[in-house]
Amino acid sequence: MMIHWExxxxxxxxxxxxxxxxxxxxxxKNINAQMEAGVHGIILGGTLGEASTLVQEEKEIxxxxxxxxxxxxxxxxxxxxxxxxxxxxxxxxxxxxxGANGLMILPPMRYKATDFETVTYFAExxxxxxxxxxxxxxxxxxxxxxxxxxxxxxxxYDNIQAVKESTRDITNxxxxxxxxxxxxxxxxxxxxxxxxxxxIGADGWVAGLVCAYPAETVAIYKLVKAGKIEDAxxxxxxxxxxxxxxxxxxxxxxxKLAEVATGIGTENVRAPRLPLxxxxxxxxxxxxxxxxxxxxxxxxxxxx
Length: 304
Known about the structure:
Low-confidence stretches: none
Radius of gyration: 18 Å
Largest sheet: 8 strands, parallel
Number of strands: 8
């Protein structure tokens, strides 16, 4: 499947039972809700997916299950976050062999690679797969900045096609578009900059709160792209307290609580993560409950 790098692509959560096993029933319910809302792709195995806690067998089950649910209607993209180039290449090859449609790749984990090492890491993966690739640039969390100069070196590989831009410097969207035009598609990866990034030219949104609120997220995207900024802004203002739950070390717990509220998830996380406790739990639930009481009616965004 050819990937059109545009639109809303949720970084989906992994669903667990109370016995710490994969909950494929709830997982399917959530993926179906995403598709019904009109998302443009599914991203598996990111931070929200608690990928670092999953064993290889579980990752493979989730890939195959997602491909079965989506049935070729939207692309399924696998996140790669590995410590070694060798293992990253192995993950890329495996993803391709089981039918994944694309890759989202982080820089090397647990080692602050130089610019040259980082470019070489991405390049070696690109050379060993035919799958299209989105580079994930998040120096805030992962301490490596993929600069414009590094991207200049990487675009010689045709399958490097997009960037998930999470520097928090929104003008970087414009810098990338000015430098590379349509050669590199740009996705915002910061929920609290979603609308702004789309307005100034981002092609899409790799979103977090979409896991609980897929229709609202896709509606904002569609309205912005249709030039209906004020309509999009009305939804976005309501959404902002929820979106701020994404920029927290406990984003997984926060978003899973929101999924409970909308009926498309459970609160179960995998240790060392634990469900929220005490005053912090009360604070997050208050944000979610307030949002649910004031949830906006959406326009017919699918037909824009």
